[in-house]
Amino acid sequence: KMENIDNDYLKSRVIWEERLSLVLDIAEQMVVSGAEVARTEYSIRRMCRGFGAARVEAVSIATSLIVSVYYGENSAVTHTRRIERFAYNMDRLEKMNELSRNICENGLGVEEGREKFNLLMSEKGYSFYTKLIFYMIIAFSFTLFFGGSIRDAVASAAIAALFKCIDEFAKKVELNKFITIIISSLSGGFLAIVAVKMGFADSASMISIGNVMLLIPGIMLTNSLRDMFGGDTIAGGVRFIEATLIAVVIALGFSYATVFYKDIFSEVIISSTREWSPFAVAAVSLSTAFIGSICFAGVFNVSAGKLFAAGMGGFIGWASYFVLGFFMLSEPVKYFSAAIVINIYSEVMARVEKAPATVFLVVSVMPLVPGGLLYKTMGFALAKEWEKFGSTGAEMLSIALALALGMLMANSVIKSMRRRRMRKLGYPV
What we know:
mainly alpha, three-stranded antiparallel β-sheet, 17 helices, 3 strands, 5% strand
């Protein structure tokens, strides 16, 4: 009799080992692809309950997943998983999220779930050359967006092509991401100066600002704020510190070039966009925000069918900021309001497109990220212009805080409404 009990226990444990292995594989890919902590933990709990678990404890902290499943009488199994790399892929996130829902709601078995998982892992995103074009258009668009000339935008696009090649090489040789960022930012800053020296462009600063936007860790920054304000303070705080450190390294790399070529930056160069009418400036900023956001969606591997919707988020966010400028003088208030708008838009599109809100939010926020101010702040620090450094840094921090508070308010209201609806439908919260 005891032997039969032991055999039943071992069989049950093997079954749950297989189930939990699949659950962690899916959860790992969600984190790697750009999921926030709350979504990952919630998906783990629902999948395990879908498999019949009595109780589930799931913890996601930065680069680790820890899951304990309780089943039967006093039986439990625990798995841990360390995540060593990130490759942001919104299309894979969306499909892994859909797979987790199929396990929860449609009773998908382990074998079928494993088969679908392997099929999703074999899918490839946009090609190298397609992403190269996305990189170049982003740099071109945001150089114009921040006030650069057409010549500056062309030079910025050329440097962006180099960035993509560096990024591809770094992935192949598994180079440390900070070393990759330093190489890219230093080479980008020097090439911007060379372009001006040779007469191909007008402003090295404008070229650099356009390229800074390519390297800013937008997904990491957005998710870290959502995690912290969602109650996952430790995981969100770690990601926020990492995102901030990366952003500072990027800006320092570009700005360091000014130490060797101060004469270029001491000249006041009027960009061609500044000579345009207010209507033309508005048209340029809105159109480049839209185009740049679409290309960011491509870089983040948003599926082709959702590129337009993702790009519209960037357009709507910047349009909100622009329109509010006619009624409000405070920059932080405009950014705060725009953050609320893009959060609402992302949630609406998540329902319409049946995809995670993250897919749209991380793209929509890009035109609002104060990359230009970050670059200028670091430039003033290297030039030892401490008064300007303080004022520009304070402005940048106030805008970042306004964006964070806007996202906090919108997230809190949306999450509260979602929990109420789920309780009414009888789903676990």
